[in-house]
Amino acid sequence: MTQIAVLGAGRIGSLHAANLLAADPGLDLVIHDPDTGAAKDLADRIGARVAHSVADALAVRDGLVVATPSHTHPDLIAEGVERGLAVFCEKPVATALAEARRVTTLVRRTGARVQIGFQRRRDPGYVRLRAAVAAGDLGDVLMVRATAFDKEPPPASYLAVSGGMAADCVVHDLDAVPWLAGQRITEVYADGAVLTEGPYAELHDHDVLTVLLTLEDGARGVLTASRTDPHGYDHRVELLGTKGSAAAGLTDRTPLALLDGAQRAPAPADGYRGFLDRFAPAYAAEMADFLRLCRGSGENPCPPEAALDAMRAVAAVQVSLREGRRVALDEID
Fold first, then answer.
1. Which pLDDT belongs to residue 127?
2. With contact defined as beta carbons under 8 Å apart, do 138 and 132 qualify?
3. For residues 148 and 225, is the Cβ–Cβ distance under 8 A?
4. Of 115, 80, 90, 104, residue with least CA distance to 4
5. Which of 86, 130, 139, 212 can pair with 113 through a Cys bridge, CB separation 3.0 to 4.6 Å?
6. pLDDT tens figures, 88-134
7. Which residue in 98, 140, 319 sits closest to 241, CA to CA?
8. What's the alpha-carbon Rg for the chain, to the nearest Å?
9. Does the pLDDT value for residue 51 go beyond 90?
Protein backbone atom coordinates (compact mmCIF):
# COMPACT_ATOMS: atom_id res chain seq x y z
CA MET A 1 0.00 0.00 0.00
CA THR A 2 1.38 3.40 -1.01
CA GLN A 3 1.64 5.91 1.86
CA ILE A 4 1.46 9.66 1.19
CA ALA A 5 1.24 12.62 3.57
CA VAL A 6 -0.53 15.85 2.68
CA LEU A 7 0.62 18.92 4.60
CA GLY A 8 -2.14 21.54 4.54
CA ALA A 9 -5.90 21.05 4.81
CA GLY A 10 -6.91 24.26 3.10
CA ARG A 11 -8.54 24.63 -0.28
CA ILE A 12 -5.72 23.28 -2.43
CA GLY A 13 -4.54 20.65 0.06
CA SER A 14 -8.09 19.32 0.34
CA LEU A 15 -8.33 19.11 -3.45
CA HIS A 16 -5.03 17.25 -3.78
CA ALA A 17 -6.00 14.82 -1.02
CA ALA A 18 -9.33 14.04 -2.66
CA ASN A 19 -7.69 13.63 -6.07
CA LEU A 20 -5.11 11.22 -4.66
CA LEU A 21 -7.80 8.99 -3.24
CA ALA A 22 -9.83 9.23 -6.44
CA ALA A 23 -6.77 7.99 -8.35
CA ASP A 24 -6.15 5.17 -5.83
CA PRO A 25 -8.92 4.47 -3.28
CA GLY A 26 -6.60 2.01 -1.53
CA LEU A 27 -4.03 4.69 -0.75
CA ASP A 28 -2.90 5.15 2.86
CA LEU A 29 -3.27 8.93 3.13
CA VAL A 30 -2.20 11.04 6.10
CA ILE A 31 -3.28 14.66 6.67
CA HIS A 32 -1.56 17.28 8.81
CA ASP A 33 -2.49 20.91 9.39
CA PRO A 34 -1.74 23.25 12.32
CA ASP A 35 -5.53 23.66 12.48
CA THR A 36 -6.26 20.21 13.87
CA GLY A 37 -9.99 20.67 13.38
CA ALA A 38 -9.53 21.32 9.67
CA ALA A 39 -7.24 18.29 9.35
CA LYS A 40 -9.76 16.05 11.14
CA ASP A 41 -12.68 17.34 9.08
CA LEU A 42 -10.82 16.64 5.84
CA ALA A 43 -9.63 13.22 6.97
CA ASP A 44 -13.12 12.20 8.10
CA ARG A 45 -14.66 13.44 4.87
CA ILE A 46 -12.38 11.52 2.52
CA GLY A 47 -11.32 8.57 4.63
CA ALA A 48 -7.75 9.51 5.57
CA ARG A 49 -5.71 9.49 8.80
CA VAL A 50 -4.59 12.52 10.83
CA ALA A 51 -0.98 13.19 11.78
CA HIS A 52 -0.63 15.47 14.80
CA SER A 53 2.79 16.84 13.84
CA VAL A 54 4.88 17.40 10.74
CA ALA A 55 7.33 14.80 12.02
CA ASP A 56 4.56 12.22 12.28
CA ALA A 57 3.37 13.05 8.76
CA LEU A 58 6.89 12.68 7.37
CA ALA A 59 7.08 9.14 8.76
CA VAL A 60 5.15 7.90 5.71
CA ARG A 61 6.91 5.56 3.34
CA ASP A 62 6.43 6.98 -0.16
CA GLY A 63 5.37 10.57 -0.81
CA LEU A 64 4.78 14.06 0.53
CA VAL A 65 2.40 16.73 -0.80
CA VAL A 66 3.25 20.27 0.35
CA ALA A 67 0.22 22.57 0.29
CA THR A 68 1.31 24.98 3.00
CA PRO A 69 2.11 28.74 2.93
CA SER A 70 4.76 29.58 0.35
CA HIS A 71 7.49 30.61 2.79
CA THR A 72 7.48 27.10 4.29
CA HIS A 73 8.08 25.28 1.00
CA PRO A 74 11.91 25.11 0.84
CA ASP A 75 12.39 23.54 4.26
CA LEU A 76 9.53 21.06 3.82
CA ILE A 77 10.84 19.99 0.40
CA ALA A 78 14.27 19.49 1.94
CA GLU A 79 12.85 17.40 4.81
CA GLY A 80 10.97 15.20 2.39
CA VAL A 81 14.05 14.76 0.21
CA GLU A 82 16.20 13.88 3.23
CA ARG A 83 13.74 11.11 4.11
CA GLY A 84 13.85 9.72 0.58
CA LEU A 85 10.24 10.66 -0.19
CA ALA A 86 8.90 11.75 -3.55
CA VAL A 87 7.69 15.33 -3.04
CA PHE A 88 4.92 17.32 -4.72
CA CYS A 89 4.98 21.03 -3.86
CA GLU A 90 2.55 23.70 -4.90
CA LYS A 91 4.16 26.66 -6.63
CA PRO A 92 6.26 28.54 -5.78
CA VAL A 93 9.29 26.49 -4.83
CA ALA A 94 10.20 29.43 -2.59
CA THR A 95 9.40 33.10 -2.15
CA ALA A 96 12.99 34.15 -2.87
CA LEU A 97 15.08 33.22 -5.89
CA ALA A 98 18.10 32.29 -3.76
CA GLU A 99 15.98 29.81 -1.80
CA ALA A 100 14.62 28.33 -5.01
CA ARG A 101 18.19 27.85 -6.25
CA ARG A 102 19.08 26.10 -3.00
CA VAL A 103 16.21 23.65 -3.42
CA THR A 104 17.07 23.03 -7.07
CA THR A 105 20.70 22.34 -6.17
CA LEU A 106 19.63 19.89 -3.45
CA VAL A 107 17.33 18.02 -5.83
CA ARG A 108 20.00 17.85 -8.53
CA ARG A 109 22.66 16.65 -6.07
CA THR A 110 20.50 13.95 -4.51
CA GLY A 111 18.57 12.86 -7.60
CA ALA A 112 15.35 13.33 -5.61
CA ARG A 113 11.92 13.12 -7.18
CA VAL A 114 10.33 16.57 -6.72
CA GLN A 115 7.34 17.75 -8.75
CA ILE A 116 6.18 21.39 -8.70
CA GLY A 117 2.51 22.29 -9.09
CA PHE A 118 2.26 24.34 -12.27
CA GLN A 119 -1.06 22.78 -13.20
CA ARG A 120 -1.34 24.24 -16.71
CA ARG A 121 1.22 21.64 -17.80
CA ARG A 122 -1.44 19.01 -17.16
CA ASP A 123 -4.47 20.84 -18.58
CA PRO A 124 -5.79 18.69 -21.47
CA GLY A 125 -5.95 21.59 -23.95
CA TYR A 126 -2.47 22.84 -23.07
CA VAL A 127 -1.08 19.30 -23.37
CA ARG A 128 -2.59 18.91 -26.85
CA LEU A 129 -1.31 22.33 -27.91
CA ARG A 130 2.22 21.48 -26.77
CA ALA A 131 2.05 18.18 -28.62
CA ALA A 132 0.96 19.96 -31.81
CA VAL A 133 3.91 22.35 -31.56
CA ALA A 134 6.37 19.55 -30.85
CA ALA A 135 5.06 17.55 -33.84
CA GLY A 136 5.51 20.56 -36.14
CA ASP A 137 1.79 20.72 -36.93
CA LEU A 138 1.75 24.50 -36.44
CA GLY A 139 5.13 25.16 -38.03
CA ASP A 140 7.61 27.56 -36.48
CA VAL A 141 6.24 29.49 -33.52
CA LEU A 142 5.67 33.18 -34.24
CA MET A 143 3.50 34.40 -31.37
CA VAL A 144 1.94 33.13 -28.13
CA ARG A 145 -0.80 35.12 -26.42
CA ALA A 146 -2.05 34.27 -22.92
CA THR A 147 -5.05 35.61 -21.01
CA ALA A 148 -5.23 35.52 -17.20
CA PHE A 149 -8.41 37.27 -16.07
CA ASP A 150 -9.62 36.41 -12.57
CA LYS A 151 -13.30 36.84 -11.79
CA GLU A 152 -12.65 38.66 -8.52
CA PRO A 153 -9.48 39.85 -6.78
CA PRO A 154 -8.20 37.88 -3.78
CA PRO A 155 -8.63 39.38 -0.31
CA ALA A 156 -6.35 42.19 0.79
CA SER A 157 -4.73 39.86 3.34
CA TYR A 158 -3.57 37.63 0.49
CA LEU A 159 -2.43 40.50 -1.71
CA ALA A 160 -0.23 41.79 1.10
CA VAL A 161 1.85 38.58 1.12
CA SER A 162 1.45 37.36 -2.47
CA GLY A 163 4.64 38.92 -3.82
CA GLY A 164 2.67 40.88 -6.42
CA MET A 165 0.64 40.08 -9.49
CA ALA A 166 3.61 38.72 -11.43
CA ALA A 167 4.52 36.29 -8.64
CA ASP A 168 1.08 34.94 -7.76
CA CYS A 169 -0.81 35.10 -11.09
CA VAL A 170 1.31 35.75 -14.19
CA VAL A 171 3.93 33.24 -13.03
CA HIS A 172 1.70 30.48 -14.42
CA ASP A 173 1.99 31.89 -17.94
CA LEU A 174 5.68 32.64 -17.47
CA ASP A 175 6.00 28.89 -17.02
CA ALA A 176 3.40 27.74 -19.56
CA VAL A 177 4.36 29.87 -22.57
CA PRO A 178 7.98 28.69 -22.90
CA TRP A 179 6.86 25.13 -22.13
CA LEU A 180 4.25 25.30 -24.91
CA ALA A 181 6.59 26.94 -27.42
CA GLY A 182 9.58 24.75 -26.60
CA GLN A 183 11.70 27.88 -26.20
CA ARG A 184 13.05 29.57 -23.09
CA ILE A 185 12.35 33.23 -22.32
CA THR A 186 15.33 35.50 -22.97
CA GLU A 187 13.85 38.96 -22.32
CA VAL A 188 10.78 40.61 -20.77
CA TYR A 189 9.18 44.03 -20.83
CA ALA A 190 6.35 44.68 -18.36
CA ASP A 191 3.82 47.42 -17.73
CA GLY A 192 1.13 47.58 -15.06
CA ALA A 193 -1.59 49.91 -13.85
CA VAL A 194 -4.20 50.36 -11.12
CA LEU A 195 -7.64 50.87 -12.69
CA THR A 196 -10.05 49.52 -10.07
CA GLU A 197 -10.59 49.96 -6.36
CA GLY A 198 -8.33 48.03 -4.05
CA PRO A 199 -5.11 48.25 -2.02
CA TYR A 200 -2.88 47.77 -5.07
CA ALA A 201 -1.10 51.13 -5.10
CA GLU A 202 -0.24 51.04 -1.39
CA LEU A 203 1.17 47.54 -1.89
CA HIS A 204 3.17 48.67 -4.95
CA ASP A 205 1.11 46.22 -6.99
CA HIS A 206 -1.25 46.36 -9.98
CA ASP A 207 -4.68 45.13 -10.97
CA VAL A 208 -3.89 44.93 -14.69
CA LEU A 209 -0.56 43.78 -16.09
CA THR A 210 0.90 43.20 -19.54
CA VAL A 211 4.19 41.46 -20.28
CA LEU A 212 5.96 41.21 -23.63
CA LEU A 213 8.22 38.16 -23.90
CA THR A 214 11.06 37.43 -26.29
CA LEU A 215 11.73 33.71 -26.71
CA GLU A 216 15.11 32.27 -27.63
CA ASP A 217 14.27 31.68 -31.32
CA GLY A 218 12.84 35.19 -31.65
CA ALA A 219 9.14 34.37 -31.21
CA ARG A 220 7.12 36.82 -29.14
CA GLY A 221 4.75 36.22 -26.26
CA VAL A 222 2.12 38.62 -24.96
CA LEU A 223 0.72 38.06 -21.48
CA THR A 224 -2.36 39.97 -20.31
CA ALA A 225 -3.70 39.74 -16.77
CA SER A 226 -6.48 41.36 -14.75
CA ARG A 227 -7.65 40.94 -11.19
CA THR A 228 -11.26 41.44 -12.29
CA ASP A 229 -13.51 40.05 -15.04
CA PRO A 230 -17.25 40.59 -14.53
CA HIS A 231 -18.12 37.66 -16.78
CA GLY A 232 -16.06 35.07 -14.85
CA TYR A 233 -12.68 33.35 -14.70
CA ASP A 234 -10.96 33.47 -18.10
CA HIS A 235 -7.55 31.79 -18.40
CA ARG A 236 -6.53 30.55 -21.87
CA VAL A 237 -3.77 30.69 -24.48
CA GLU A 238 -3.44 31.05 -28.27
CA LEU A 239 -0.43 30.14 -30.40
CA LEU A 240 0.34 31.26 -33.95
CA GLY A 241 2.80 29.38 -36.13
CA THR A 242 3.87 29.46 -39.77
CA LYS A 243 1.49 26.57 -40.56
CA GLY A 244 -1.51 27.46 -38.44
CA SER A 245 -2.87 28.61 -35.10
CA ALA A 246 -4.59 26.94 -32.16
CA ALA A 247 -6.08 27.82 -28.77
CA ALA A 248 -6.43 26.06 -25.44
CA GLY A 249 -9.02 27.01 -22.85
CA LEU A 250 -11.50 28.58 -25.29
CA THR A 251 -14.66 26.54 -24.64
CA ASP A 252 -18.39 27.05 -24.28
CA ARG A 253 -17.71 27.87 -20.61
CA THR A 254 -15.22 30.66 -21.37
CA PRO A 255 -16.77 33.89 -20.04
CA LEU A 256 -16.47 35.81 -23.28
CA ALA A 257 -19.18 37.33 -25.47
CA LEU A 258 -18.62 37.03 -29.23
CA LEU A 259 -20.40 40.02 -30.71
CA ASP A 260 -20.62 38.74 -34.27
CA GLY A 261 -23.65 36.73 -33.24
CA ALA A 262 -21.94 33.38 -32.98
CA GLN A 263 -22.00 33.10 -29.22
CA ARG A 264 -23.03 34.94 -26.10
CA ALA A 265 -21.11 34.79 -22.88
CA PRO A 266 -22.32 31.87 -20.76
CA ALA A 267 -24.64 32.62 -17.88
CA PRO A 268 -22.77 33.33 -14.62
CA ALA A 269 -23.71 29.89 -13.29
CA ASP A 270 -22.25 28.21 -16.38
CA GLY A 271 -18.99 30.09 -16.85
CA TYR A 272 -15.78 29.14 -15.09
CA ARG A 273 -16.02 30.32 -11.49
CA GLY A 274 -12.37 30.09 -10.49
CA PHE A 275 -9.12 28.18 -10.84
CA LEU A 276 -10.35 25.03 -9.08
CA ASP A 277 -13.21 24.84 -11.58
CA ARG A 278 -11.30 25.84 -14.72
CA PHE A 279 -8.34 23.54 -14.08
CA ALA A 280 -10.10 20.65 -12.30
CA PRO A 281 -8.91 18.03 -14.86
CA ALA A 282 -5.36 19.38 -14.62
CA TYR A 283 -5.29 19.09 -10.83
CA ALA A 284 -6.56 15.52 -11.04
CA ALA A 285 -3.89 14.67 -13.65
CA GLU A 286 -1.16 16.19 -11.44
CA MET A 287 -1.97 13.82 -8.59
CA ALA A 288 -2.17 10.82 -10.92
CA ASP A 289 1.30 11.82 -12.18
CA PHE A 290 2.56 12.17 -8.63
CA LEU A 291 1.31 8.72 -7.67
CA ARG A 292 3.28 7.26 -10.57
CA LEU A 293 6.33 9.30 -9.51
CA CYS A 294 6.03 7.89 -5.97
CA ARG A 295 5.99 4.38 -7.44
CA GLY A 296 8.92 5.03 -9.76
CA SER A 297 6.89 4.47 -12.90
CA GLY A 298 6.25 7.90 -14.40
CA GLU A 299 7.92 11.04 -15.72
CA ASN A 300 8.01 14.29 -13.79
CA PRO A 301 5.90 16.93 -15.61
CA CYS A 302 7.48 19.87 -13.75
CA PRO A 303 10.86 19.45 -12.01
CA PRO A 304 12.27 22.26 -9.84
CA GLU A 305 14.56 23.46 -12.65
CA ALA A 306 11.49 24.44 -14.69
CA ALA A 307 9.96 26.24 -11.74
CA LEU A 308 13.25 28.08 -11.18
CA ASP A 309 13.08 29.38 -14.77
CA ALA A 310 9.61 30.77 -14.04
CA MET A 311 10.86 32.46 -10.87
CA ARG A 312 13.74 34.06 -12.78
CA ALA A 313 11.19 35.39 -15.27
CA VAL A 314 9.10 36.79 -12.39
CA ALA A 315 12.17 38.55 -11.03
CA ALA A 316 12.86 40.03 -14.47
CA VAL A 317 9.26 41.26 -14.73
CA GLN A 318 9.55 42.93 -11.34
CA VAL A 319 12.77 44.70 -12.39
CA SER A 320 11.08 45.82 -15.61
CA LEU A 321 8.11 47.22 -13.69
CA ARG A 322 10.40 49.16 -11.36
CA GLU A 323 12.77 50.49 -14.00
CA GLY A 324 10.50 50.78 -17.04
CA ARG A 325 12.79 48.91 -19.45
CA ARG A 326 13.41 45.60 -21.19
CA VAL A 327 15.19 43.14 -18.93
CA ALA A 328 17.21 40.16 -20.14
CA LEU A 329 16.93 37.06 -17.99
CA ASP A 330 20.72 36.79 -18.06
CA GLU A 331 20.72 39.87 -15.82
CA ILE A 332 18.86 37.92 -13.16
CA ASP A 333 21.64 35.33 -13.04
1. 98
2. yes
3. yes
4. 80
5. 86
6. 999 999 888 999 999 999 999 999 999 999 999 999 999 999 999 99
7. 140
8. 20
9. yes
